[in-house]
Amino acid sequence: MRTPTKLFTLTAVGLVAAAATGAPATAAPTKQARAAWAPADSAAIHPGVQMYTDGAQCTANFVYTDTAGTTYVGYAAHCAGTGEATDTNGCDAGSLPLGAKVDFVEGGSLVTEGTRVGGGTLVYSSWLAMQRNGETDEDACAYNDLALVKVDAADTGKVNPSVPFWGGPVAVNTSGTAAGDTVHSYGNSSLRAGVELLSPKQGTSLGTEGGGWSHPVYTVTAGVPGDSGSAFLDADGNALGTLSTLALAPLAGSNGVGDLSRELAYAQATSGIAGLRLVPGTEPFRPIL
């Protein structure tokens, strides 16, 4: 029996996971509506940036866009949760409403205030979508943990879609992972007090659970409170998933990574956002650890 928990510590939110039904996610976007992005080495908003919602801190996963060229940044739906760390069922857990304000922050720790670099608005939550739709799929309720924040118009010029250190994503992983496959991530918990050397992580997938909706993983250092929502890439640099839970049993110390292809498909089917899709990184994937 899997025993997951979200990770909360003071102002730092943890992790959850899930899934749902819907049309398959497109492996690679057919076009990029934005003509240009901020340079990767100077962009203030990017995968891995800290995101604060009503005092709770999580980490951005990927950048998304739509038919109109709107810019979204993803994190975990539970990052806007209002319940306890054990509230991991998205079909009945409490959440802030759509329209909640989110701040993008660089640096800082639990005792040192970081620098606000931009803002946005919560426009999609898999938890709220499942509750609205009366979702009954137990795997979906347990593992679908994706939210989208629409970047304020004044801050869209600060965005780059590349994952720091690793580069990518190349496309969306639609085949999952097998036990032993290499995975890469970039956490940015305020607990690390801005020590960037601790942010890049490489690890190993333990396979798949929840009917393909989640991938338990071990990394050299496990995800910690505040890493919730952060990006996971597969061995080829494709967007595999979003960091969601810490498992207490049977795989103590492992993290649950929500399958992005299924989470994105659910969002495409229920968010009302036309043409929602992942934006590939402008920087090539570099598996250099």
Automatic annotation (TrEMBL):
Xref: InterPro entries: Peptidase_S1_PA, Peptidase_S1_PA_chymotrypsin
Keywords: Signal
Family annotation (Gene3D superfamilies): Trypsin-like serine proteases (2.40.10.10)
Keyword Phosphoprotein attributed: no
Source organism of the structure: Nocardioides pini
Signal sequence region: 1-27
Name of this chain's protein: Serine protease
The organism's place on the tree of life at top rank: Bacteria
The keyword Nucleotide-binding appears for this protein: no
